[in-house]
Every structure is written in structure tokens, then in C-alpha cells.
Fold this protein.
Amino acid sequence: MEFKRQYLATCILILISLCCAFRQPDARHRRNPVQEIEVGYLATATNSLSRYARTAGGAMTLAVNEINNNRKLLENYKLKFVYTDIQGDEEKSIAALSDMWKHGVSAFFGPDITCTTEARMAAAWNLPMISYQCAEYEVSDKSIYKTFARTNAPDTQFTRSVLALLEHFNWFKVSIVAGDETRRVSMKDILQKTLRYNNVTIQHNLTFESPYWRNWTKTRLLRDIIEKTYTDTRGKM
């Protein structure tokens, strides 16, 4: 967890460094010795994805504090971030993004689940956006989503990595087990299509209730799935 927080903090530092390049100070700030830059943070904190929001939120706080405590980094700039719980809903995400832009936010960290529409808006405003969770494929097109970046690979890249691993070991029979979160189900569906297209036999296709917390969730669910499927899960041609 600490490594992931440090990693996200590094990504936020990159995002914040872009703020000064993308946004020029307005007349109100030119007379002030220290200019305040606001960074918007859009995250889902009300469902099973809240753990990611807490991790990224910790990284955001860490990055902002470290920058503000080191005047050599941004010299006459001081950072603050504003946060909105978008509840995993695209309309709420768009509304929060628009409100932040209206109030002069210089860059965006997030959103987490949806990002295609939001990234197009950020590109139209010429403001940087980094998503730490969104895996939608469309935003990989940098000719359209020019100011968007992410720390999480798209689902299509994930499936290619899995397929390469299976081919390396000559495994052509597998089982797919995934959580029932929207993104996990989407990844499972894409993986299933990719494997079948490449003549990989799917022995089992199972979904379990999310979130699953190792050492905390008092259930034998995953152990039961493994015991049920391990004998014929993996096979070679």
C-alpha cells in the first residue's frame, strides 16, 4: 500500500508540474508574490472502489504537502486540491469536472471509473488530466485526448499480456475468476473474447461478490472456487 501511495504521489507531482505549463496566471495573481494553484481530485468513495480513493487521496495529500514544504520546486506557487466524491457515476463526474473548471482548477487527478467524456472535456480546455483507475480503451487515442494520461493500462493491454503468458507456457485451457465490480466484469468479458478468438478453451467462467479482502473477508468463497476448478483449469495442447 505504501509503495502504491508513493507511486501515485510521483504521478501527481508530474501532473502538478504540468499545471504551470498549461495554465497562465490571471491578472489577480500577477500582483501577488505567491500564486495558489488548485488541482481537482475526482474519486469514488461510496462503494467498493473507496479503497482506491483512500490510497490516491493519501498520495494527493503527500504530494501537495511535500511540494508546499519545498519552496525550490514551484518557487512562488502554493498548491491546494479540491475533492469531489463522484460516486462512480459519469453524470456526477462531468458535473464535478465542470464546476471545478468554472472555479479555476488547473489540472485534474481522476476520475476513476469513467473517463472518456471527461478526458475530451479536459482536452477542450487544454488542461492536464491523469486517471489512476480508468481503463477505457478510447482515451488511448492521443490525437483526440491530447491532455490525458493514466497510471492504469487499458483492458486490451491486460488481455494481450495474459495471452502472451499462456502462449509462452503453451497453456490452452484456463478458468476465469473475477469480482463483480463493473470494471472487473468488463475486463473478464474482454479477456473471454480474446481467449476464445485465439483458440483458448475456457473451462470455468466464475464471478464472486466484491470486494474481497484477504485476511478480512470471513468466507471460503475463493478457496471453494479453487478447490472446485483446479483439477482441470490449466491444460496444454
Remarks:
- The chain has a mean pLDDT of 79.
- The chain is about 45% helix and 20% strand.
- The two ends are 39 Å apart (CA to CA).
- The longest strand covers residues 35-43.
